[in-house]
């Protein structure tokens, strides 16, 4: 946090004792500290993460006004008078992230879906520091992987047909929505019973295609969340989510191994193996149709099983 004089100064400013300030381990972008029982301090680890903190200051009030449950901002200080970086003091919530939670309440995913719907329903507007993400075409990635020898030509043809089929299920030119951008287990806070409590960490927020929001959850979780979202027609968001799982999974296929990461998508093959695991688990409708139609389209045999796999 800086010099030893910083802790007493922060303690005095926020009405806590110096021994009530404790660092919370973890966090890629920010160093985090509890300030007593009611406040939470976040300081960017380096200058490259400062813009994300400023972005959160713009987004959080808008998200809360829309009914999204996320901790309130108590103070934002960019004067660098006490800390040699801008910092954010927030309401401290007493909850556990979904990665470490021993429980998962049946209502969790439906409620989280309703919360994401509230976020995506926010009217388009200018928010300082919030970029607009575009939906890039994954098909050049397939061609490159085939040319470089990472996949065979038959698999490349099959994948291209799958993307072509998925593109008929949803509108890739649909208006952008406000994305949390890191909708993942480590940012979903739950209470001791595993009920949804709050959504945290808005540093990756952007305006972008709705389907991209669901690419950092496992498809099993997406399937349980979307009924609570109540937005698109039958199959539209499922197809969009699958599009991004496949697209990002292929983009990361040649990445280096990543060990000891809390996020399940860190290893380069995780998303693609996640798609395989999901379709092998007998998912509910309309998921089988999204797999079987696309796979059948380019398979030598039309004898595909009910879970979307073709011999």
From TrEMBL:
Stretches with biased composition (Low complexity): 292-302
Molecular function via GO: protein kinase activity
Disordered: region residues: 287-311
Annotated keywords: Kinase, Transferase
Domain Aminoglycoside phosphotransferase as annotated: residue spans: 21-242
A matching Pfam family: APH
Parts of the chain that traverse the membrane: none
Gene3D superfamilies referenced in this protein's UniProt entry, alphabetically: 3.90.1200.10, Phosphorylase Kinase, domain 1
Highest taxon above the source species: Bacteria
Protein name stated in the entry: Aminoglycoside phosphotransferase (APT) family kinase protein
Provenance organism: Kribbella voronezhensis
Taxon lineage: Bacteria, Bacillati, Actinomycetota, Actinomycetes, Propionibacteriales
């Amino acid at each position: 946090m800086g010099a030893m004089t910083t802790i007493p100064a922060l303690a005095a400013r926020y009405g806590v004792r110096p021994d009530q300030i404790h660092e919370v381990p973890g966090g890629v972008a920010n160093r985090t500290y509890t300030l007593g029982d009611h406040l939470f301090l976040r300081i960017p680890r380096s200058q490259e993460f400062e813009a994300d903190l400023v972005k959160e200051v713009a987004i959080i009030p808008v998200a809360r006004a829309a009914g999204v449950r996320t901790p309130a901002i108590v103070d934002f200080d960019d004067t660098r008078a006490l800390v040699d970086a801008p910092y954010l003091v927030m309401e401290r919530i007493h909850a556990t992230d979904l990665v470490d939670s021993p429980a998962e309440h049946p209502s969790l995913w439906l409620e989280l879906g309703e919360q994401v719907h509230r976020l995506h329903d926010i009217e388009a507007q200018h928010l300082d520091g919030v970029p607009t993400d575009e939906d890039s075409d994954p098909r050049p990635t397939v061609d490159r992987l085939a040319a470089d020898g990472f996949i065979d030509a038959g698999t490349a043809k099959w994948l291209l047909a799958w993307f072509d089929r998925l593109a008929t299920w949803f509108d890739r030119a649909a208006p952008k929505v406000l994305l949390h951008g890191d909708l993942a287990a480590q940012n979903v806070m739950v209470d001791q019973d595993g009920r949804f409590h709050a959504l945290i960490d808005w540093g990756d927020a952007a305006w972008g295609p709705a389907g991209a929001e669901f690419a950092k959850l496992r498809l099993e979780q997406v399937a349980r969340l979307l009924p609570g979202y109540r937005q698109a027609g039958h199959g539209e968001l499922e197809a969009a989510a699958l599009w991004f799982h496949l697209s990002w999974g292929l983009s990361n296929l040649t990445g280096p191994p990543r060990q000891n990461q809390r996020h399940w998508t860190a290893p380069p093959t995780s998303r693609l193996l996640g798609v395989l695991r999901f379709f092998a688990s007998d998912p509910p409708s309309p998921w089988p149709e999204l797999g079987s139609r696309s796979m059948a389209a380019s398979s030598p045999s039309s004898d595909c099983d009910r879970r979307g796999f073709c011999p």
